[in-house]
Design brief:
The protein is α/β, with parallel strands linked by helices. The protein has a single domain, classed as Rossmann fold (3-Layer(aba) Sandwich), CATH 3.40.50.1240. It is 36% helix and 14% strand. It is globular. This is Phosphoglycerate mutase. InterPro entries: His_Pase_superF_clade-1 (IPR013078), His_PPase_superfam (IPR029033), Phosphoglycerate_Mutase (IPR051695). Keywords: Hydrolase. GO terms for molecular function: fructose-2,6-bisphosphate 2-phosphatase activity.
């Protein structure tokens, strides 16, 4: 299975430097422009399916980018990590705790390892159902960590890092 991964476009929380986790901010004006531009990167890539986090910022990204052009599957397992009590706090504060929270859950939330368990389950089911397909995943940093750990065999210490944006990433699974 060929997987392309793209992050959701910029949200209001991103612009305000806040950690969203499972909260549901909408896309900012910049994010709306980014989402509309996303489709251009896939003009010559024949996608069979787009799988998207059920959070609003990811849903808005796929709708603005592709409309109804492709089949879309929304799944809550593609969500960002649940920051629990840290949701809405400064992103820099939450980011500084990432390595500490690999096995330890955020208070009222989940650990990165717990998030990987749900993401790996989703990706394995996706491969079983669509092994010969080309799929675009639109999600969050943790969504990509799931691909990096499962498909590339990296450990969480290697992948939990600041995001260096690019239009999309490719994986052969």
């Amino acid at each position: 299975m060929k997987i392309y991964f793209a992050t959701h476009a910029t949200s209001t929380d991103n612009e305000n430097g806040l950690a969203s986790g499972w909260s549901d901010p909408k896309l900012s004006a910049l994010g709306q422009k980014q989402a509309k531009a996303l489709a251009s990167y896939f003009e010559n890539i024949p996608l069979d399916l787009i799988c998207v986090s059920d959070l609003k910022r990811a849903q808005q990204t796929v709708r603005l980018a592709f409309g109804a052009k492709f089949p879309v599957l929304f799944d809550s397992r593609l969500r960002e990590i649940n920051y629990g009590d840290y949701t809405g706090r400064p992103a820099a504060e939450v980011d500084s705790l990432r390595l500490e929270m690999i096995d330890k859950p955020f208070p009222g939330g989940e650990s990165y390892q717990q998030a990987m368990t749900r993401l790996h389950q989703f990706y394995r089911e996706l491969k079983e159902a669509h092994s010969e397909k080309t799929v675009l995943i639109i999600g969050h940093r943790a969504t990509q960590y799931g691909l990096d750990t499962l498909v590339l065999g990296k450990d969480l210490v290697q992948v939990i890092r600041p995001l260096v944006w690019q239009p999309y990433w490719e994986y052969d699974f």
